[in-house]
Amino acid sequence: MATADPPPPVASWHPGCGDDCPSTAAAPTPHGPPTRVRVPRIGVDSPLTVLGLDRAGALIPPTDFDTAGWYGGGPAPGDTGPAVLAGHLDSRRGPAVFARLGELRPGDLVEVWRGGQRLSFRVTGSLRTRKERFPTAVVYGPTPGAELRLVTCGGDFDRRRGHYVDNVVVFAVTEARDPVLPTSAAG
Predict the structure, then answer these.
(1) What is the pLDDT of residue 152?
(2) Which domains does the chain have, with CATH numbers?
(3) Which of 99, 174, 179, 183 could form a disulfide with 95 if both were Cys (CB 3.0 to 4.6 A apart)?
(4) What is the DSSP annotation of 110-148?
(5) 183: helix, coil or strand?
(6) So what's the pLDDT on residue 29?
């Protein structure tokens, strides 16, 4: 994942929302790390691992190509701020957990399990940007409410460097919290 912090690219939408944001007052914020992410439109249903940063400050992606991860150094889903979930686009064996992330559109549902609760988020937009121009401030910067950022690779594959040249970032905002689900339904 990228580390550069130049000015963010110009987007025709704001990653969050204004007065039309759904209320999150339905239930208290759950505790503990997130454990699962589900994105019905693109067939994602994955446990979450905790991710950290390398010495250069870049996000270390999950070691398992079929598992998504949560950046444990930032807000958790449901807390105020942007919770960042990352996953691979593909592997040498084929598509990985976030292979279809770029297909998400505004209004699509993203569900995250945390503390025995299912938290629902709605996609507000997405962007694709060169890794060397990764919009760090837009992805990791403060937000007024609970938001999600889903990140994967995209664009062309640079065989010489062994990685994709772009990142795809999907933005989502929280909805009212769902009731507590039985453990078997959460994962």
Answers:
(1) 97
(2) 34-186 (2.40.260.10)
(3) 99
(4) EEEEETTEEEEEEEEEEEEEEGGG--HHHHHS--SSEEE
(5) helix
(6) 74
